[in-house]
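Schema walk-through. Below, the input block comes first and the output block second. Nothing else is stored per chain. Lengths vary across the set, and this one has 109 residues.
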Amino acid sequence: MLITGAYGSGKSTLAAEIADLLAERRVAYGAVDVDWLTWFDVPGLEPDASRRVYLDNVANVTRSDRDAGVRHVVLAVAPRDRADLDAVREAAGMPLQIVRLAVPLGWTR
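--- output ---
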């Protein structure tokens, strides 16, 4: 599952709740806030190279999970655009159902 939405819409919270439910049911799962995989800095690294590192991070985490026996993956991400969404799906290396969170304008927690 790939949960998308704007920053602060509840993607990470929902991913954690889904992970808790899967754990309760003793289902092999992996859950990742993909935005954290973009949190690095290399001075002078070009944006295209930075994007490749980010997508490699997604690929490496999901591959490692699958190698360990995970069959259900929950990813939370705030894609910049459709191309970014497609790139994350491809990097994950497995079919992902997309769930987009939409919150009304002016919504607060």
